[in-house]
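User: Please run a holo structure prediction.
Assistant: Happy to. Please share the sequence and the ligand.
User: Here you go; the ligand is zinc ion.
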Amino acid sequence: SGGGDPATVGSLLATIATSLTEALRILMFADKRQWGPDEFEQIRALEEALDDAKKDFQEMAPLVHGQFYYQNDRTTISLLELRKLLEKFTFHSQNFKDWARQGGPINPIWARETGQLKQELHRAQCRAARRIFAAEQEGSRCLGAFQVHRQQKRNEAERQRRQRARSELPPWQQQHEQAVEDEAARQRGEPPQTAAAHSLCRSTSLEALVPVCNAVGRFERLGEHDAAFVCDFCDGFIVWPDLQRLPSARTPPKVVVFPPLAIANHVAPEPGEWQAHILCPYCDEYTYLDQGEDSEEDVKYAQDEKGFTSLEKFREHLEWYHTALPVPAI
Ligand SMILES: [Zn+2]
Ligand SMILES: [Zn+2]
């Protein structure tokens, strides 16, 4: 378009990597005779930041249909964020240039700053990828949720494969294997598969999704009693209020939403909001199942395409519409 800003996500990331490499090189070629643990820690922090940035770059690409799209992306807000971050990295690198000229011990605070910048860069890359993903799929899950959901589907396929393999065993052995698996499910707080006649009961182990949840975001305490999950891809918060309040004897036990269920189905917050929205995966199934002309039921289960505005609203919905469902407790 001539005269436009030629920067892309890829070019800004490359410049950030160069600034890290320069800082690293200064340390590598410095006289190490007087070095203490702080200097070596600084090298380690810079190497880790550079490695993580590369690893993220390689992992984001396949999530958004390839490196070409990610590298050449020019989403305004992504460029703005990366440019701000580049300024911080340049400023950070300058510390090492000055240090090389002046000599003396390194400032131990810098290694911590390197670690913080590494985190900021990680989240900036996650958000940049999420925006590309969102532009292609209107109104659907956040890219962080998509990864948890995809893993859930893979686990489910694997479980079905095992079940098929078992169905080829002699009956006595089938029963034995089923009993073993049901017991394991019970211990995880899930319904036994033998009772799972209803399609909604196809509960795979949500427990097995905890690692992928930790890879797309982080759990934090919020205030005195609340807990939150913060997604690296959309910065959306999913809030579990008042974890310490136990249901009294008179109130029926409250449904507790197991974190992977909410995380796998969240939608990035609307502009100006901070809480992620949550889609009801069970309603999704209903609308797919019952798209007939007799759609009374559809109306009953229909949800806003943007999902519930908070975990609490999602939880209430589960209580009202899906109480027959086995919802695992934390
Ligand atoms: Zn998200
Ligand atoms: Zn629902």
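The radius of gyration is 25 Å.
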